[in-house]
Amino acid sequence: MATRNENGRTELLVQFSVEGGSMRVAVGPFKWPPTSVGGTVEVVYDPQDLSNVLMPDEVGTGRVALLLAIGSGLLLLFCVLAIVITFVTW
Question: Are 26 and 52 within 8 A, CB to CB?
Fold first, then answer.
């Protein structure tokens, strides 16, 4: 089943099998859905939170998180160095 929202994008209602039954979750929105009603798509879901469903191309590689971690670490190092330099030259 597909539904359209206000801005012309489409959400898909996907059904997938899990332990103890099946689950239905809305995925999207898509400008061009990857399938039509009754079609088959692959989904990646979190077994701890079955409402957390993504299409495989939406799953990141972790590069953004790595860059944020490196940037945060460098900022922390800069702040610590600034504090140490302030106390040493004071």
Answer: no
Helix segments in the chain, DSSP class H = 63-88
Render pLDDT for 69-80 as a digit per residue (tens, 0 to 9).
Answer: 899 999 999 999
**Using an 8 Å Cβ cutoff, are 19 and 42 in contact?**
no
Burial class (CB in 10 A: 0-12, 13-18, 19+), 25: middle
Task: Assign 57 a pLDDT band (cuts: 50, 70, 90).
Answer: low
How far the first Cα of the chain sits from its last, in Å, is: 68
Residue 36: its H or E element = none
